[in-house]
Amino acid sequence: MMRVELTVNGERRSDDVEPRLLLVHYLRETCGLRAANVGCDTTSCGACTILLNGASVKSCTVLTVQAAGGDVTTAEGLTPADGELHPVQRAFRQEHGLQCGFCTPGMVMATVGLLAENPHPTEAQVREGLEGNLCRCTGYHNIVRAVLAAASEQVSS
Amino acid sequence: MTHHADLAASELVRAEAPLLAHAAAQVGDPQIRHRGTIGGSLAHADPAADLPMALLALGGSVEASGPGGTRRIASDDFFAGFFETHLAPDELLTAVRVPRRPGAPWGYQKFVRRANDWAIVGVAATGGRIALANMGPVPLRAGAAEQALADGASIADAAQLAADGTAPGEDMHADVEFRRHLARVLTRRALDQRN
User: Fold this and answer.
1) Please, what are the domains in chain B?
2) Is B116 on the interface with A (CB under 8 A)?
3) Looking at the partner chain, which of A52, A127, A132 has a beta carbon nearest the beta carbon of B32?
4) Residue A66 is part of which domain span?
5) DSSP assignment of B8-53
6) By CB distance 3.0 to 4.6 Å, which of A55, A69, B6, B63 could disulfide with B95?
């Protein structure tokens, strides 16, 4: 076991973990944060996307020990538990940017990462920016609309 | 080691080795580019990957460090086989070197079925060198096409030789003849793009 210290959704944590423990399993099982889903376990689907030090990463391909000292944000951390939804979450709701919802936390976190790097993307840039996230319901059109709505701040509260 | 996203965004790399920055921006998807590194990609030695082809086109080299010290390995001598390099078991890849070529023309062509796939065939061309991805077990130089260009052949004529000496495999995406065709077409496009 190894001791890791990191910040998860603003909370400083210190946990003993196996060196092989994937970050997504740490988040889901040690921290009890279930937004990041394990879809493919091979860095293909993006359902486990979180922010690590502000950059979108697939947490099924990060060892927990690699995140030591880092700052992790999951979908739960976008907004306080009793607070208003994050603008990207509101945009996904407004534009119905989901069908079954399994990919949604990853889509939302990839979008937050994308808009941090490029606040006003074109539709093509949105599609390229989300190329690492798969929606098996094929609900891409509404997802892209949601991202564009979030970027243009055309989101009702 | 430097993440692909940092390499792609680096003003220094974009100015001094723009082909390398462009190649880094073609790897996988944004999340992968935030985690993957140039050293990792080179040591992994996937013959279909972007950065091995880019390093070969640029005529770069890597530094390998181990108990016996540090040595430099030219890109032409680095790739040993399918996912194999000439790194010794006790060596780590610790640095990557590319020549500074600010303003040098370059071309980069990557044929994929989906945005974040590996190249079915890729071509990178700059400074008289043409490198091919996924035309054999290692990234390859299109030697016959390079020689023809040096001898004054037209781009179209040189590109016709791009698949000479290659040994591509076949898979569900492309058979051998299609890959050879792609190598010729993409080489012509990369050479045209360069000018």
Assistant:
1) 4-97 (3.30.465.10), 106-193 (3.30.390.50)
2) yes
3) A132
4) 2-74
5) HH-HHHHHH-HHHHHHHHHSS-HHHHHH-BHHHHHHHT-TT-HHHH
6) B63
